[in-house]
């Protein structure tokens, strides 16, 4: 009789913990996610397509490669005029910074790290325009010419 009670409790614990794990992994029951996406009002965004940036990579006394970037900047719609006024300064800052950043980025690898480049471009944008204006910098294409 004692063994039956122990087996019953062991099976009950296994079924309970299994049910708990399944509900947690499938997001059902008390673990269901509440749809807050409908409640959050998204701000309208504005995309700025930039002219292609051509950045030479210099190693030693020669040009090792030339990188051509086509960028698209996503910003809040309320800052549209400011970004259009400052786009020339932003391009200049990109070229100046990436001129020294590319050799360091590509010193130990042959492929361009797009994620690191996006983070760097957003950091430059925040430095030039101020924090909070730029949502993201998208790279349409990056090629070695």
Series of H and E elements: HEEEHHE
Main beta sheet strand tally, sense and closure: 4 strands, antiparallel
List the uncertain runs. none
Rg is 26 Å
- Helical element count? 3
Class computed from helices, strands and strand pairing? alpha+beta
Strand content: 25-35%
Report the strand count.
Answer: 4
Backbone shape: elongated
Gap from first CA to last CA = 82 Å
Binned, the helix content reads 40-55%
Number of domains: 2
Mean pLDDT: 84
Query: Please, what is the oligomeric state?
Result: single chain
What would you say this structure looks like, in words?
The chain has 145 residues and is α+β, with helices and mostly antiparallel strands. The protein has two domains: 2-31; 45-144. The protein has three helices and four strands. It has helices at 2-26, 80-105, 114-129, and strands spanning 45-49, 53-59, 62-76, 134-144. Strands 1, 2, 3 and 4 form a four-stranded antiparallel β-sheet that branches. Strand 2 and strand 3 (62-76) form a beta hairpin.
Question: Which keywords apply here?
Answer:
145 residues, elongated, 4-stranded antiparallel sheet, 3 helices, 4 strands, alpha+beta
In short:
Helix content is 46%, strand content 26%. It has 145 residues and is of the alpha+beta class.
């Amino acid at each position: 009789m004692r063994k039956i009670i122990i087996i019953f409790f062991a099976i009950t614990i296994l079924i309970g913990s299994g049910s708990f794990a399944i509900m947690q992994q499938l997001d059902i029951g008390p673990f269901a996610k509440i749809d807050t996406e409908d409640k959050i009002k998204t701000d309208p965004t504005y995309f700025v397509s930039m002219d292609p940036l051509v950045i030479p990579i210099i190693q030693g006394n020669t040009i090792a490669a030339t990188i051509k970037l086509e960028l698209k900047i996503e910003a809040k719609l309320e800052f549209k005029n400011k970004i259009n006024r400052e786009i020339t300064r932003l391009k200049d800052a990109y070229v100046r910074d990436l001129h020294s950043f590319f050799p360091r980025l590509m010193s130990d690898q042959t492929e361009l790290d797009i994620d690191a480049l996006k983070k760097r471009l957003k950091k430059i944008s925040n430095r030039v325009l101020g924090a909070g204006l730029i949502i993201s910098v998208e790279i349409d294409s990056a090629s070695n010419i």
